[in-house]
Bet v I/Major latex protein domain-containing protein
Amino acid sequence: MAQIQKLEVVHEAKCCPDKLYRMLTRDASQLSKYIPNLVESVEITATREGEVCLGTGFVWKFMPVGGPTMMTKEKITAVDNKNRSITCTVMEGDFMGDFNSFNFNLDITPKSGTTDGTSLVKWSVEYEKSNEDVADPVGILKSIELMTTEMNLHLLKQA
């Protein structure tokens, strides 16, 4: 029987944690303007007064590192906007033939002991492979890390 596996990456961001969280959640539809090399488009459905909430849906078209454009349809299954934390479950998408389940988790936490607004951005993916021959989704995680790096740089330029 397959088991749930987890990969994670922690990235240090110098931009405002609230701005980064907003850009990666409620303003995600704008990402293709700023990082068109990674994100082709993002559609957002079912927000509450402009904020993402339980049940909010995302349709992502993105370019993973070393691969062709892919699509995922995701739904928020856990969210804490105040603490900048979100979990999305992939409902369908191009890579779901390889996985029985797939979740993205994002947590943005101000780094303790600093006064410059530095935060730690932790992305994790939890997944169950459809069989043991399926490779770990390292390319997807690398793409997420690159997206975070580029958005951090973009937001720093705006400051």
